[in-house]
Amino acid sequence: MNFASDNAGPAHPAILAAMTAANAGHSPGYGAEAAMERVQAMVREIFEAPEAAVRLVATGTAANSLLLATLARPWETIFCARTAHVQEDECNAPEFFTGGAKLTLVEAPDGRMDPDALRAAIAAEEGRGVHGPKRGPVTLTETSEKGTTHGPARIAELAAIARAHGLPVHMDGARLSNALAHCGARPAGISWQAGVDALSLGATKNGCVGLEIVVLFDPAQAQEFDYRRKRAGHLFSKHRYLSAQAEAWLSDGLWLDLAARANAAAALLAQGLGARGVELLYPVEANLMFFRAPRGLHRRLHEGGAQYYLWGGDLEGGNPDDLLTGRLVCDWSADAAAVERFLALI
Amino acid sequence: MNFASDNAGPAHPAILAAMTAANAGHSPGYGAEAAMERVQAMVREIFEAPEAAVRLVATGTAANSLLLATLARPWETIFCARTAHVQEDECNAPEFFTGGAKLTLVEAPDGRMDPDALRAAIAAEEGRGVHGPKRGPVTLTETSEKGTTHGPARIAELAAIARAHGLPVHMDGARLSNALAHCGARPAGISWQAGVDALSLGATKNGCVGLEIVVLFDPAQAQEFDYRRKRAGHLFSKHRYLSAQAEAWLSDGLWLDLAARANAAAALLAQGLGARGVELLYPVEANLMFFRAPRGLHRRLHEGGAQYYLWGGDLEGGNPDDLLTGRLVCDWSADAAAVERFLALI
Amino acid sequence: MNFASDNAGPAHPAILAAMTAANAGHSPGYGAEAAMERVQAMVREIFEAPEAAVRLVATGTAANSLLLATLARPWETIFCARTAHVQEDECNAPEFFTGGAKLTLVEAPDGRMDPDALRAAIAAEEGRGVHGPKRGPVTLTETSEKGTTHGPARIAELAAIARAHGLPVHMDGARLSNALAHCGARPAGISWQAGVDALSLGATKNGCVGLEIVVLFDPAQAQEFDYRRKRAGHLFSKHRYLSAQAEAWLSDGLWLDLAARANAAAALLAQGLGARGVELLYPVEANLMFFRAPRGLHRRLHEGGAQYYLWGGDLEGGNPDDLLTGRLVCDWSADAAAVERFLALI
Amino acid sequence: MNFASDNAGPAHPAILAAMTAANAGHSPGYGAEAAMERVQAMVREIFEAPEAAVRLVATGTAANSLLLATLARPWETIFCARTAHVQEDECNAPEFFTGGAKLTLVEAPDGRMDPDALRAAIAAEEGRGVHGPKRGPVTLTETSEKGTTHGPARIAELAAIARAHGLPVHMDGARLSNALAHCGARPAGISWQAGVDALSLGATKNGCVGLEIVVLFDPAQAQEFDYRRKRAGHLFSKHRYLSAQAEAWLSDGLWLDLAARANAAAALLAQGLGARGVELLYPVEANLMFFRAPRGLHRRLHEGGAQYYLWGGDLEGGNPDDLLTGRLVCDWSADAAAVERFLALI
Q1: Does a structural domain hold residue B6?
Q2: D204/D306 same-domain check
């Protein structure tokens, strides 16, 4: 009953099998292996973007920060949701990689940036000449950190605000596959057709060992990305184990299948919680959810073997009736039995 | 009738006279001139801080950023008022000088950080291990950007919150002299005795040519500051012209006299505005104020020769009845006649 | 006949088997998995350093740069061999991670820093107060980039020069295992006992998928390292696949066995070249060598299927008699048959 | 008898008079004052560059570093003379401002970069793809740190090497006025016509209080420069005191007159040293020189009241016969009497 994070789950066996299969003989490194050609072709086809530049890195923070550094100048500010991973969970990586750009926080009550709040935030960075930070990229997280999804229309609405000011748009797609599995949109429709310039497509959380696929829809930016990746220590010499992961993950729709499995487990969990009168804070659209419950219940769940993180207070101490928020994340390997055991504890 | 900024005013003649007097013969540079010894002794005496390290730079952004970089590590976040100069008007200088530290904005409705908001902001940066930014320095602005002053008690209250978490405290004292002239506190009482570790004492806005006095109450931090100042191009070779300014400015209480003059002009202006029914947004305690008035009035004032900045809209276009906010700043040279001419236009 | 790089070879099957074995069920991430405890214990035992802090990253540039950033301040200069990987092959990563420290190049004619040159380089950074860069860490590469090894005595000699000036010592041990396999020294003897403070122990080039083991002999520096690793995107969420590699690699002396295999292949190759009168530029002590030969011979070798890099000129064009330098690297999987085929082409 | 540095001398009285004259009434700041328009027009006329963008900062390190950061990307290396101020005397400022670019040192035995050495250095940074640093700007120092001058032909020769590789050229002209006074070249001829893209024209060392004039011959780079200047704290609010210095310094050829005075004093000194058999290390072409003499003589000079820096050893201790190098710098205010007193001590 581990619902702590989708990165607590294992990789799909096909991924390790592919890495093992790639482990034969000598190979050029640094992305010059033949498999990388195939990966780029697959991504271009899946995203209907025949010119896109495709790169691989091993962590989500690397993908996000390298892309933001490619899109932003150091004197700019990056507009992100208040809850965004780049703001909350990357220990100032965007500031580091960009050489000191700022993040401007946009309200996103349910994890999705509010369009009016984005408009206001952009407008507020106007009219101070060289004195204030200059407007830089807008970064959107799909699936959001709260487990909600934007879908193509909302992404397009937000991206249009950015583009009206000439600002590039980045998508942190650490869980984009879960959003796609939810809404059924075409990858092109939720990315470049909706106005996204550069994408971090997360695979680690969804069945890989350590892989994030970077998609630069404007290939002219690839060279700068390459220099930044190298000097940040994120270019792998034995790159074949990244391309092997990517090829297996994208083959035969595995990436979407795994996302659908995780979503299904989450839906089952949400349904069960709802049926038991447990309060869910946001619509459950992908593979994670937040629920509010008394500390006493959280204790019982943890004592029963459930693993997940709490927000707003500790398990120990305090009044058993205090309401604390728990986050439950289902990875691709979460099964119905675990969900049922969890629900049975309530 | 120039109320645009205190840096639009001239230097006091004594400052230029001192620079001219310093312009005789050869002198060691880089702060090794004899006058710098005297300046350090004066600052130590004025602040009752016999161990403090004193340094000079030429701009406020340099003073603030160099000090914040000395106090913060790159993976930390600096707590500042939402309205702080370091956030709004330094084009990401703190992020640049610190090597990528973050700024966490604390609500400060009237320019003064709300203690509960500071507590909440610090608490919110807890419990994410290496993932979130780590808590770093708290920076307070006295006089605040809204023209209000904290006074020693409020500074001490905010600094105590920082120190309870082991966080150092910086004061952006670009207009500290105006606050002191207002409240009559002892410099020690509003700085190190209230919990301030490092101070940017602004002189440029208050009668100098280009001078900010840096006071490190913990002299052990001076060496790091010195390396940072040098590698940022802020160590002056012909340093004698900075120490000459400082010596003249601090002599015979000139710095407080000039601040008192500016405050008096502002008080006269505020009184006149109040008498004419003009809405002032915040208490006028130092040398600047914000007033709300219809666009039509702002136009009349500007056409009559008044100079000041508007917030929330442009002078031209739009409805003459729209309420716009104007900022009025009095420098030491603002005289009663200018104030009267301004008021007469209303 | 791929002698292009040791990272062109495959991982040892035991490494992928260990990763596959680790792929079971849920696990804490970010190094909190149980295997990481075991890895730290193994490293401590192997290095006879019961207090050392052990960390894992995936690339050599990450290991080197994060350690150098932990050891150096931005206003310092890092002393490295002119041929060092950190200078030549990391696209300014040390400058990036340190926030702008400098590298001072020390002559190292055969890849090993000359002690007198190091003394002179350190002495030259003296006496300019805040104006010049300040002296920072010394970094040594064992096995050197030229395929020579220092051995404990030479490492100790160089480290003593650093320590006499109070400077910390870093070892880039991308091929340390090859040096140990060559000289038979104890790991402690060539590292902390010789004066090394922090070590990048390379595993990627020697049979792993992507793994570098960071050893901080002073564990007080681990926390700063951890923040730097996180904010550089080098902390892996599914960290178990790094610790699995490390555990397998260090078990039963596999790491030294693999290094010995690579060295043996290189010795065979060197012997054969020598027997055929081919000029070798440096003593062949580990798993790589440089040889000088006419362009015509290089062409014949490449046309015969040999893969390796050339220095000082291209294969195509030019005079067939021009002497060009080739670098031959044997990885653990290089076998005698490949060596024989290569030699037969000469 | 102060020959320690040209920044040990006073400013010319006309400079302080101009600052005092500028100290009247209110003025826009940040370079928006009317005088700045005049300064830009004067520089454009003097340099026959009607499109050039002109900016003012207060220190040479600021001018150099801001320009190099504008010309270089963080993954590039800047080619500079081994003796360059940016390498030796700016405490890693170029690395800081550029966000981690590297400096590649080019041999310059007499302070002037050797063309073949520059060619070789550029060639050496070739062919390692993303792994090595990429080639960046070439920076030339005129007058060189050794007191020699390049003149237009040598500048053009070196710049042509850079331009053949598409690399921009920066000139550190801290003492450009001395070189111009020496060779009589037109400012255009030694700068943009010779291939220089951006110039730091030093005024501080040559009679100003604190002023460096930045000339961007490609005005398209001015906006980036402006953001960088602001976020580095080098944009002055009371900018009028910079433009006042510049206007006075450039008026009526004062800048060249002052340089000629300094050069004349240096020539007198060099002649006297030569006549007394003292060894001068380099041709004396501007306002500084290096001489080699026994420690005993250096002691006698210092005891007699001469001030200057020594290279290669200390005044105290050691053998009186040891040969040490002394640097003598004449500023504009150095007079014949001081020179005669100095020579009389020998």
Answers
A1: no
A2: no
Q: Which residue is closest to C33 within chain A, CA to CA? A: A8
Q: Summarize the confidence of residues A64-77 as an average pLDDT.
A: 98
The ranges of chain C with pLDDT < 50 are none
Which domain CATH number covers B168?
A: 3.40.640.10
Tokens 């930044």 belong to residue: A228
Question: How crowded is the C-beta side of B242, counted as CA atoms within 13 Å?
Answer: 29
Question: d(Cα B284, Cα B339) in Å, to the nearest integer?
Answer: 15
The pLDDT of residue D18 is: 98
Residues A225 and A310 in one domain: no
pLDDT of residue A332: 97
Instruction: Map tokens 């062949």 to a residue.
Output: C284
Q: Which residue's entry shows tokens 């005088």?
A: D35
Report the residue of A59, A91, A105 to disrupt the B interface, i.e. the one with the largest count of B CBs within 10 Å.
Answer: A91
Do D235 and D209 meet the contact criterion of CB atoms below 8 Å apart?
no
Mean pLDDT of chain B: 97
Query: CB-based contact (8 Å) between A59 and chain C?
Result: yes
Cα distances (Å, whole numbers) of residue D120 to B289, D104, D133: 62, 11, 15
Å between B135 CA and nearest CA of chain A:
11
Tokens for D162, please give them.
């850079």
Query: Is the Cβ of C131 closer than 8 Å to some Cβ of chain B?
Result: yes
Residue C312: predicted pLDDT:
79
**Degrees (nearest 5) of the Cα angle A99, A105, A109?**
150
A156-165 burial, b at 16+ Cβ within 10 Å, e below that, comes to: bbbbebbeee
For Cα atoms D309, D313, D319, give the angle at the middle one, nearest 5 degrees: 125
Q: Which chains touch B (3 or more CB pairs under 8 A)?
A: A, C, D
CA triple D319-D320-D323, angle to 5 deg: 90
Residues of chain C in contact with residue D89, where contact means CB-CB under 8 angstroms, are: 128, 131-132
Q: Using the beta-carbon criterion (under 8 Å), do A27 and C4 form an inter-chain contact?
A: no
Q: Which residue of A has its CA nearest to C9?
A: A26
Which residue from D73, D100, D230 is facing A131, i.e. has the nearest CB? Answer: D230
Cβ–Cβ below 8 Å for A133 and B91: yes
| A141/A59 same-domain check | yes
Under 8 Å between Cβ of B49 and B78:
no
Which strands, in side-by-side order, build the sheet including C288-294? C279-280, C288-294, C323-329, C309-311
Min Cα–Cα distance to chain D from B161, Å: 29
Kindly state whether residues D311 and D334 are assigned to the same domain. yes
Q: What is the pLDDT of residues D191-225, one digit of tens each?
A: 999 999 999 999 999 999 999 999 999 999 999 99
Tell whether D75 is within 8 A of chain C (Cβ): yes
C9 vs A33: CA distance, rounded Å: 12
Query: What pLDDT, on the 0 to 100 scale, is given for residue A219?
Result: 98
On whether the CB atoms of residues C323 and C293 are closer than 8 A, the answer is yes
Q: Which of B215, B233, B253 is the last residue of a domain?
A: B253
Choosing from B186, B220, B253, the residue where a domain stops is B253
> Inter-chain contact D130–C91, Cβ cutoff 8 Å?
yes
Domain with A145, as residue range(s), is: 12-253
- The candidate with the shortest Cα–Cα distance to C217, out of C51, C38, C41, is C51
ipTM of the complex model = 0.97
Tell if the CB–CB gap between B7 and D241 is shorter than 8 Å. no
Same domain, A249 and A259: no
Is A131 in CB contact (< 8 Å) with chain D?
yes
**Is the residue at D73 inside a domain?**
yes
Out of D90, D91, D101, the one facing C92 most closely (by C-beta) is D101
The answer to whether D23 faces chain B, any CB pair under 8 Å, is yes
Q: Give the total number of structural domains in chain D.
A: 2
In sequence order, which ranges of B4-150 are alpha helices (DSSP H)?
Answer: 13-22, 34-46, 60-71, 85-88, 93-98, 115-124
A92 at the C interface (CB within 8 A)? yes
